[in-house]
Amino acid sequence: MGLAIRLGAVLVLSVAACTEPPAPKHSEPSARLVTPPPFVPRTYREGEKVVVPVTFPDGSTAEVVYARELDLASRGVRPNTWALLDTSYGSVGRDFRIDPGRLEEVWRGDPIREYEGADGTVVPFLRAAGMDYLAFGFGAWTVSVYDYPGGGARLTEEERSLWARSLTGYETEDGFLLLEAQPPLRLARAGEYPSPMELWFGGPDGGVEIWPVQKCSPKQHFERSAGYASWCDTEARMYIGVQGDKKFVDAALAGGVRVRNVVFAEEPVSK
User: Fold this and answer.
1) pLDDT tier for residue 3 given thresholds of 50, 70 and 90
2) In this structure, are 172 and 126 located in the same domain?
């Protein structure tokens, strides 16, 4: 499912902790997730190249430059990031499902309950396909924080209330999602793991992902396999990963994708 951690004296992966069966379907409302059209960012031409100014969820900015035949922007862009909720007994980590589209476009159905969000907003708590989600609407984006329907990995009522009140965000002028958090919630910084903060250009048939790092060596980190390649842009301090058919991957490797003019909101943490 992705990042699901509770940090205390010992790091506990909570993926295997969900042992309690979900409630019967008739006992609580259910909802469903709808996938709206992708977010297609603005671009401009620079000779035979296309340039996309981008904003990461933490406010870091950059320009992605690619060969016109790759046609990355039309594939749509989806951000990814995660956060930690600090409590008196440890920390609870979750990564997000982030969808382009307003809350009412992405989620259909009735919530199990509702929580008070920042600035008097309402944060619905919904169940879909055997998982629970706190759903936030930030402009033309929806951020869904997943939870388990039972077991030790499930968020407590207090933790869900804190998530609802602490996470905020908005749509930037160029249409990207910018997230902010108030203590005790802390958003991931660029380069922080176990899950990267990244931007994904693509869909089910493949695409390109970029994520910032502290430092890297192109020779040490270059990878190539059938349908995939990744390398590090040492000047930009960005990993670039490419997925797709051989023609697409070869075009990206032949100088078809690079990142420039990177401005970090915060200095990336060491990997």
Assistant:
1) low
2) yes
